[in-house]
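pls design
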């Protein structure tokens, strides 16, 4: 009887091993499909960006020639039409360039090194304050660990999150931005959050804010193209981390993300 039980257990174990092997093969196949799809999307975005540039340059060039040739004979209304065409063309050119840069992020070479995240955070805050000197923000920053990653990408990640937080807290009585380190259950990773007390956003937007050319709100001034958070998500994913957001209207926004720790640091 015990022999039969042993044989049954062994058969169960062999079946489980077989199932696990099949799952690993299926996962590997899906990962390869995702990689192929990402390469195709990047190639498509790159091609579209290049193909749009030539006709756009023609539009700008000929409209500029038209404006110069007509000179003072242009009426005020006609001149405003031409200026609108040129301004819209400049905006489209910027969007094409941004799309081109975004399409290159997956192919960009990464340099993984030990990074003192404290220093990187401090530098990013100073840069944002220089770019927005009229915004007085109360910063609250936790002690940061050593992380392992590409310093250029992580600097851009912080700049975007901090600049977004400052931009959307302008109407707060006392703008405040926190960067905290939270407990992380993923071995070898640290969990961070950037929080503000700004205008927030609806919970229904928590996923779409990471889409390309998606802006949290329509602001009067031309402030960004809506590419920042899409890039942030790409930076985090390229480091093997996760990112998500939470917000409530008029109650601020929080962006959570994980990054790999430098070997020897605790999560």
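designed seq:
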């Amino acid at each position: 009887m015990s022999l039969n039980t042993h044989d049954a257990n062994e058969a169960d174990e062999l079946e489980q091993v077989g199932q696990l092997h099949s799952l690993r093969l299926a996962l590997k196949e899906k990962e390869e499909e995702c990689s192929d799809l990402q390469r195709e999307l990047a190639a498509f975005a790159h091609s579209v960006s290049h193909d749009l540039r030539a006709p756009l340059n023609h539009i700008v060039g000929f409209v500029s020639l038209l404006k110069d040739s007509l000179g003072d004979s242009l009426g005020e209304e006609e001149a405003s039409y031409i200026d609108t065409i040129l301004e819209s063309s400049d905006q489209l050119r910027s969007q094409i360039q941004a799309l081109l840069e975004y399409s290159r992020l997956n192919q960009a070479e990464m340099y993984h090194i030990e990074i003192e995240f404290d220093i990187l955070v401090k530098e990013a805050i100073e840069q944002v304050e220089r770019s927005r000197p009229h915004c007085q923000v109360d910063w609250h920053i936790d002690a940061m660990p050593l992380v392992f990653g590409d310093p250029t990408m992580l600097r851009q990640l912080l700049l975007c999150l901090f600049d977004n937080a400052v931009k959307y807290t302008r109407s707060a009585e006392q703008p405040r931005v926190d960067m905290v380190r939270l407990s992380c259950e993923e071995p070898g990773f640290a969990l961070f959050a950037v929080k503000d007390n700004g205008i927030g956003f609806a919970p229904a937007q928590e996923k779409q804010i990471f889409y390309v050319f998606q802006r949290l709100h329509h602001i009067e001034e031309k402030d960004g193209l809506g590419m920042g958070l899409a890039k942030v998500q790409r930076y985090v994913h390229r480091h093997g981390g996760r990112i998500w957001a939470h917000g409530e209207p008029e109650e601020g926004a929080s962006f959570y993300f994980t990054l790999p720790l430098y070997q020897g640091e605790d999560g």
